Amino acid sequence: LDYQHVQVPFEITLWIMLASLAKIGFHLYNKLPSVVPESCLLIFVGLIMGGIIYGLNDKSPPVMDSDIFFLYLLPPIVLDAGYFMPSRPFFENIGTILLYAVVGTIWNVFGIGFSLYGICQVKAFRLQDVSLLHNLLFGSLIAAVDPVAVLAVFEEIHVNEKLHILVFGESLLNDAVTVVLYKLFRSFCEMPAIKSVDVFAGVGKFFVVGLGGVLVGLTFGMTAAFTTRFTKDIRVIEPLFVFLYSYLSYLTAEMFHLSGIMAIVACAMGMKRYVEANISLKSHTTVKYFMKMWSSVSETLIFIFLGVSTIGENHEWNWPYICFTLIFCLIWRALGVLVLTFFVNRFHVNTITSKDQFIIAYGGLRGAICFSLVFLLPDFHRKKLFIAATTVVILFTVFVQGMTIRPLVDLLAVKRKRESAPTVGEQIHIRFLDHLLAGIEDISGHWGQYYWKDKLEYFNSKYLQKILLREYDQPKSSIVLLYEKLERKHAIELAEAGQLGHTPSHPSLLNNDRTVITDKKLEDTLNLDVLENIQEILARNLYRIRRTGPAYNRHTLPGETEPMGRAKEILILRHKGL
Amino acid sequence: LDYQHVQVPFEITLWIMLASLAKIGFHLYNKLPSVVPESCLLIFVGLIMGGIIYGLNDKSPPVMDSDIFFLYLLPPIVLDAGYFMPSRPFFENIGTILLYAVVGTIWNVFGIGFSLYGICQVKAFRLQDVSLLHNLLFGSLIAAVDPVAVLAVFEEIHVNEKLHILVFGESLLNDAVTVVLYKLFRSFCEMPAIKSVDVFAGVGKFFVVGLGGVLVGLTFGMTAAFTTRFTKDIRVIEPLFVFLYSYLSYLTAEMFHLSGIMAIVACAMGMKRYVEANISLKSHTTVKYFMKMWSSVSETLIFIFLGVSTIGENHEWNWPYICFTLIFCLIWRALGVLVLTFFVNRFHVNTITSKDQFIIAYGGLRGAICFSLVFLLPDFHRKKLFIAATTVVILFTVFVQGMTIRPLVDLLAVKRKRESAPTVGEQIHIRFLDHLLAGIEDISGHWGQYYWKDKLEYFNSKYLQKILLREYDQPKSSIVLLYEKLERKHAIELAEAGQLGHTPSHPSLLNNDRTVITDKKLEDTLNLDVLENIQEILARNLYRIRRTGPAYNRHTLPGETEPMGRAKEILILRHKGL
Predict the structure, then answer these.
(1) In chain A, which residues have their Cβ closer than 8 Å to the Cβ of B14?
(2) pLDDT tops 90 at residue A504
(3) Count of Cβ atoms closer than 10 Å to residue B317 Cβ
């Protein structure tokens, strides 16, 4: 027996296996996951595992290594989150999200830090040795909402898209603020004296860290898109580039002390559109599937490790400090959301309701990022107290808030996510309205969201697509891609039901010169390709609707409509489309 | 800048990126890969990289770590090889393969070892200090044909299936022999005296190592299949189990000093059938794609590292020893193939031609396994000579033999692989003949291949499928799966060509009691499910053939055949099938 030799890969594989089996186990009993979120169950498994290890070895089980967390477990989750980010609601609400992420996080950090310092002044609690700086440092790590925890809970409760993107976007974008404040306070702790110039440098640093991360991410994303232009002959390694470039962007950003999370999100969002157009359908399935799989495993491991690491002798218990931390976390977040939303609602037509505000405040879960940051603190005599307080806050938010948020959403009747995807017709109207609004903004001289979106789209089709796409001759709009996807799915369903039969195959036989009335002005605003695509879709889609629900006609029997006449029409329309 | 922090993942990612980009680079210029095998190009890139590192640092570049090779780079390639192993030709030729792998390898080891010892006795060569045991040890590592090198070259030259499986199967199955002999001679080198009991123990060990590996692999494979029974609700982690269990089987086998390669091949071949039936279509695509991708990257890295490791000061040059090693490798392999094939041909109707024999002997490429084994040798004063000789043999076989084998195959007009997959009709006949032959063997009391295959199939459908498959009610034979796959592909093609039209949708409208004449005896031999499936396929397939090539009829115009009458027929046939 030579265990030493294979120990590292063997143990890693076993941990992943345990995590996956635990996941299967929960789903075997159907009722459990609908009541308790998976994250709670996984932490629970981790607690049991930790208890067993503690009982057997009589020493604390190994703590989740912060390096392993930040270098190996976090990136897959953030990559998945960024890649599948619904970009439309994200950019529509980017202002609000940034406000919550930047101002809200700073508000929470200072709020929690200063009020905890106030608590420390009470002599009865015996906490006078915790300085203001240490309290602020602690505030900076406990204030940030955790994307992993938020994702795990919000994916199960299906609130409406806007609410989801507000909470989730905030949890992703607050990384830059957290990184800067955490590092700032940590370096202040080690400095003998703090000058005001250091404070200003800190403010400047925030922009460098955030925007730098985005820049690094976009650079790698564009390179990835460019690389996939040349993979036509070796389809098999296409998925690899998506993962390699995203990971490199994360590591590069971390190397320069920029925000790795912002980098990987920017990289994923930037490359998605071009990569999807370049790579083959199977490669794309692999990318999507593997990303989901990887992030799911990472998440599982994080929650299990979180449970395991909780057990042990790392904690110093101080009732007042821990209780007040919890209370201040809740109060300051609620206040922050209320105040910020008040300003947001003054400038928007589509306001955030008070129910939504409650869910945003209540959904501010803390998770593994806080936990890793608190272990990364330099050693000082109250570190164990901070660890205990962090653990309590995480467990409280994940267990109590995570488990009650679903009933609360039901109780408050918060607007849910619509069940079905938008129809092709709706998508066309959305796109049309975008063009219209861009035009209106252009005429009125107001440089709003739509104006910039239009400019970006123009830049994209004029320059980026030519460089990054392999087959630029046939640029496909997202609607056409969606349509193709639906058509393909429909075909597979038909094939599986064994109903694939005789199909019309000679569209060239019937030539007809019927003209389609097109609005000349519309044609000028929309670019020609989009117009063509829309025509094609309408032609096919109208036919489909008519076919699936034929009008009642007392001269024909049901199921005996005239296929020839209709086929003729379709062929004419299709011919027009080509 | 904090490079230390991210160094390990950053450098690994960069190496993989380099390997992938090199692959893309080769394929950009189309002519190159058709002349020079990719493996040669990659070694060449490695040599250049090594030269650059050597030139810049003025010290030997890092050598490929044997642990990294055996624990991380080799398993993906072997898993891929085992999972996509064409099981029919493999089991049809298992006897010949085992003969080549076991007897052939032993023949080569002792042949090369003893003749090199003879060379060492020539005083002029100044090699008297190399003992017989060291020569045999060297023989044991240099004799084994390398699966990675064989795969890389043979996948490009497309020889016929039997020839391919003979060379490739040998390279996989000789692992057990190599492991045993290598470890045996290594322990003999360190022993003061060798007793005859040790030699007998060595012979016994071979069976333990080989069969033990297979047993470990099958156990994990069955567990994997059983696990995928329960993944219906969490499709996203299904692919993970295929990888986790295979890797665990490899690590477990290595831990107990069994043959890891045999274990992972057995695991992959054992689980494939059941896992494919249990997991979703998308999971399956992901598994296949990711396996190919991973093995492709591993292979690329191995060849690049092989090139890098060649550069440096690890070599001791001794012309006679190195030249004679190369010559003996070639001669003993050729002799071995000739002698063994002579015996094989005496017992088989379907003989191995002399052209095939030449390609088998010539295709005995050495690769990274020899290279890693020679670095794993205990330190002794002639180790550098062995390293040099191994490097020369590998480079010679990969470059000279690898590059000339394609022209030679063309020149000798070796039978190529058939281009198209067997038709459904052929597959039905093959299956039918299997049943027939099993019956004949049963009656004549001859326990041949078909008898055992039939028994295994019976055991499979009686016990294994019930335990391992999720939906046992609808066991699908491989033909039905193939048919479904073809149908789905056809549907996608139609959808992509935009020809998916009106399909008949009311099979229940037309009931007809036409009877199908079935041979009662045939029904007894075939099991009922298979018969039903075959009927269904015939029904659909006959229709398809008739549809695609309608008979000429002077009363109808082309493209104007009677769809209604035919549709009626199809519906009747389909109704029968259901």
Answers:
(1) 248
(2) no
(3) 11
CATH number of A64-412: 1.20.1530
What DSSP line would sit under A76-119, residue for residue? HHHHHHHHT--HHHHHHTHHHHHIIIIIIHHHHHHHHHHHHHHH
Helices (H), B354-513: 354-362, 368-375, 383-395, 402-412, 424-444, 449-459, 465-468, 478-496
**Complex-level ipTM:** 0.75
Helix (H, G, I), strand (E, B) or coil at A416: strand
Q: Give how far B71 is from chain A: nearest CA, Å.
A: 7
**pLDDT of B101-144, one tens digit each?**
999 999 999 999 999 999 998 888 888 888 888 899 999 999 98
For residue B341, CA distances in Å to B97, B328, B355, B358 come to 11, 19, 12, 11
Partners of residue B3 in chain A, C-beta under 8 Å: 255
| Tens digits of residue pLDDT in B217-231 | 999 999 999 998 888
Give the H/E segment covering residue B230.
none
Among B3, B10, B546, the residue to mutate for chain A (most A Cβ within 10 A): B10
DSSP 8-class letter at B246:
H
Instruction: Say if the Cβ atoms of A236 and B500 lie within 8 Å.
Output: no
Contact yes or no for A281/A350 (Cβ under 8 A): no
Distance CA A46, CA A50 (A): 6
Domain ranges of chain B: 64-412, 428-476
- A67: which chain B residues are within 8 Å (Cβ-Cβ)? 5
DSSP per-residue codes, B74-111: HHHHHHHHHHT--HHHHHHTHHHHHIIIIIIHHHHHHH
Quote the CA–CA distance of A1 and B174 in Å, as a whole number: 22
Whether residue B44 contacts residue B307, with contact meaning beta carbons closer than 8 Å, is answered with yes
Q: Between chains, do A6 and B71 touch, taking CB under 8 Å as contact?
A: yes
- With CB atoms and an 8 Å threshold, state whether A244 touches B13: yes
A141 CB neighbour count, 10 Å cutoff: 24
CB within 8 Å: B240 and A10: no
CB pairs under 8 A between A and B: 208
Average pLDDT, whole number, for chain A? 80
Closest CA to B497 of A325, A503, A250, A389: A503
Interface residue of A286, A287, A299 to substitute, partner B, most B CBs within 10 Å: A286
